[in-house]
Amino acid sequence: MKNDSFRILTINAGSSSVKYSVFDTAANRQLVHSEIERVASVEEAMRRIPALLKEQGVTELNAIGHRVAHGGAKFREPQVIDSEVIKDIEDCVPLAPLHNPPALAGIKVASDAWPGVKQVAVFDTAFHQTIPERAFTYAVPDAWCKTGLRRYGFHGTSHKYVMMRVAEELKTPVTELRIISCHLGNGASVCAIERGVSVDNSMGMTSLEGLVMGTRSGDVDPGIFAYLKRTLGLTVEQIEDALYKESGLAALSGLGNDMRDIEKQAAEGNKKAQSAIQVYAYRARKYIGAYAAVMGGVDVIAFTGGIGENSASMRKRICERFDYLGLDFDEDKNVNVKLTDSEAPQIQRDNSRVRVIVTQTREQWMIAQETARILSLKQAPAETLPPIPVAVSAHHVHLTETAVEQLFGKGHVLHIRNQLSQPGFWAAEETVDVIGPRGEIKNVRVLGPCRPANQIEIAETEAFKLGVDAPVRLSGDTKGTPVVTLRGSAGSIQTEGLIVAKRHIHMNTKDAEARGLHHGDQVEVAMHGGDRELSFRNVVIRVDPRFVTEMHIDTDEANAGHIEHSGAGELTPAPGCTAHITHCHTPAGVAEQSCCLNDTKKKEAA
Ligand code: AMP
Q: Which residue puts its alpha carbon closest to atom 4 of ligand 1?
């Protein structure tokens, strides 16, 4: 194999077929794509792959990437497979009894067939590990939750690809977009992606929840289990089986699960087919409305999957009456969508605030990319780089010059109390009271210099005290945040700008270069020095030549790690506490990869 070639076999082992592809990720080329259908067993299908690959001219592999449906709560990143990871995937079998066993069988046969070749598990659930607790929690007894019963979300590889493709098409970083990604295939789910992270997915603990699918029901009242037992004498297993295999479009239409047949019959007047289409579209529209509410609006609605890519009439039905969201749908553009490659056409009118984008999904390609990414991750040897100092940031406010005058009197200028560790920033002598609908926080320190917008940074526990829901945001990103009252010595104002600061590291350009990090990257950080050591995920890197390298956490985070801090209203270095970056997993990495999506696809097609 040539040095500039890196060949990755991707395996998607399902219960009725095994899909496999080979990509040369170094040359951005797809070499093989095939599917073995109606297999006697996954093992039998897998054992045929080495000979089939040989026929197609592939004799050597650098790595194998496996699609694994369920990674439970443990995995938010693909994993290099070893005995421990296999055990973890086995532990998730009760959560995905139909999907994880074939993946495990695929891994076993692949490790026998290609001994010594690194194998990576890419989890469908991993992209959704950023879903907040309020969205993933079922309101059921605690003992049930302790078994792992919660919402996880699926189709993560597809939704992540769609996010990247949309960002690339709009030439806008993922961190500036609120995307509702609709994967409408035989399985179907909607995903709310806020600023580069999944915040909700319509599939839940299993891939049964949410939208109407080919043969799966999507949402039903859990009360039907007892009802069907009493009325039809069905067992739990019979009901579960029917919800997976005999429901959805197939049940509604009585015509099977192929949307093409259903649309044809509906046009010819078949009432059940018409009803199936209406139920399908209604459920999807309902989720889109809900996710717009969850994210405080939507910038892009994206369609993918067999139905999303090909059914113009379904896209139109789903997008009906979204004018209140700022969507002006263009039916001409919609009916003219013909995807042949990696195009991502927009189907809204020019004046529409919300964009609607249609694109193919490329799960196998993503699995290859994720496999290559994990294997090439530069793990900076911690011992050769100095640890990063940690500072605890207590609640504080940044004010505009106008706000300073409204709060402290006309012509008032803030008085510098002490300099902060970042050059040019200081704590003022002035403080304000922050007042919410339920309570107030007194004597919150004002930091200077003045800014173009007011910003109030508190810890999440304090948001409960105020009685508001403060979003986790990066500093400066205050659009649409809750309004609170600020009271100063000379007056009060009402202002938006209440946030819980997203944890971040101010990093000097030289330190960032030494670690191979870029502005916007997200890293995992292990904290040392407290008596309850812990790791923080999704820590954002902010790079500037003027910065002093330092990680900032809030008081909740400091408390969680027993990290000592003193003083209030300013940034205080935590005595003896340092952090090591242990892992990089970044939207910026996504943005970098997304730059080459088009090139790659064109080469693949060639
Ligand atoms: P997938 O699982 O992504 O392959 O999607 C399969 C679904 O896409 C099936 O329900 C098909 O009926 C549907 N589909 C494929 N092509 C079309 C089309 N031209 N119009 C409507 N539905 C389609």
A: 306
Q: Would you say residue 379 has pLDDT above 50?
A: no
The confidence score (pLDDT) of residue 589 equals 33
CA-186 nearest atom, ligand 1: 2
Inter-residue long-range contacts of 128-133, CB under 8 Å, 24+ positions, other chains counted: 128/152, 128/153, 128/154, 128/156, 128/191, 128/198, 128/201, 129/73, 129/75, 129/76, 130/76, 130/197, 130/198, 130/199, 130/538, 131/198, 131/199, 131/200, 131/201, 132/199
Q: Is 248 touching ligand 1 by the criterion CB < 6 Å?
A: no
Homologous superfamily of 149-368: ATPase, nucleotide binding domain (3.30.420.40)
| CB-neighbour burial class of residue 360 (10 A; exposed 0-12, middle 13-18, buried 19+) | buried
Nearest CA to ligand 1 atom 23: 307
State in Å: Cα 151 to ligand 1 middle: 27
Pick the CATH number of 29-123 from 3.90.930.12, 3.40.50.1820, 1.10.10.10, 3.30.420.40: 3.30.420.40
Residue 452 has pLDDT above 90, yes or no: yes
266 Cβ inside 6 Å of ligand 1: no
Task: Determine the pLDDT at residue 601.
Answer: 37
588 CA to middle of ligand 1, Å?
33
Whether 149-368 and 29-123 are alike in CATH topology: the answer is yes
Q: What residue segments make up the domains of the chain, in order of their start?
A: 29-123, 149-368, 378-606
What is d(CA 166, CA 40) in angstroms, rounded to the nearest whole number? 39
Atom of ligand 1 nearest to the CA of 262: 12
Mutate to test the pocket of ligand 1, among 211, 310, 318, 363 (most ligand atoms within 8 A of CB): 310
Nearest ligand 1 atom, CA 305: 3
Q: What are 172-182's pLDDT values in tens digits?
A: 999 889 999 99
Decide: residue 338, CB within 10 A, 0-12 exposed, 13-18 middle, 19+ buried: exposed
Which three-class secondary structure string do you get for 226-250?
Answer: HHHHHHHCCCHHHHHHHHHHCCHHH
Comparing 423 with 483, which gets the higher pLDDT? 483
Tell me the C-alpha distance between 400 and 31, whole Å.
57
Higher pLDDT: 431 or 605? It is 431
State the chain's mean pLDDT as an integer.
89
Q: What is the mean pLDDT of residues 80-86?
A: 96
Decide whether any atom of ligand 1 lies within 6 Å of the 591 Cβ.
no
Q: Are the CB atoms for 288 and 302 separated by under 8 Å?
A: no
CA distance 191 to 125: 12
Residues in the chain: 606
420 lines ligand 1 (CB under 6 A): no
Mean pLDDT of 578-586: 61
Closest C-alpha residue for ligand 1 atom 8:
306
Task: For the chain, give the percent of residues with pLDDT over 70.
Answer: 90
Q: Ligand 1 centre and the CA of 418: distance in Å?
A: 64
d(Cα 529, Cα 31) in Å, to the nearest integer?
50
Whether residue 467 contacts residue 436, with contact meaning beta carbons closer than 8 Å, is answered with yes
